[in-house]
Design goal:
alpha/beta; Rossmann fold; 44% helix
Length: 126
């Protein structure tokens, strides 16, 4: 099986830990974590992950601005981005579609099926 490298950008360490454990156990993917948008952009430029899981609500630079910066960067614009968010209102959903994220996974998510949800959005096989 082809191991994937996933970048998690989330300012909450407990979320990072749950996602890391979930993806490692369910899919045996390699995980790197960033606690801010700027750190995430730097890691994406240097490690070229297969996908990015991006929190929407973060201090300093939020997930939407992080996504826009990733999308404008030649080194990172090809990387699929899935938002992890509790914001699932109609206005937010329209915004997420408009900016062109690959998908959205709602928090709280089920850690036992997270890798399957990601694989489905990215059309990967587990």
């Amino acid at each position: 099986m082809n191991s994937k490298l996933i970048l998690i950008i989330d300012d909450e360490e407990p979320i990072q830990k749950v996602v890391r454990l979930s993806l490692k156990l369910e899919a045996n993917w390699q995980i790197i974590c960033a606690s801010s948008g700027l750190e995430g952009i730097d890691l994406a430029e240097h490690h070229h992950p297969d996908a990015i899981l991006l929190d929407v609500m973060m201090p300093e630079i939020d997930g939407i601005n992080t996504f826009e910066r990733l999308n404008k960067n030649v080194d990172t614009q090809h990387i699929p981005v899935i938002l992890l968010t509790a914001k699932t209102g109609t206005a937010e959903k329209r915004l997420f579609q408009k900016i062109g994220v690959t998908g959205v996974i709602t928090k709280p998510f089920d850690p036992l099926t997270l890798a399957s949800q990601i694989a489905k959005l990215l059309q990967w096989t587990l």
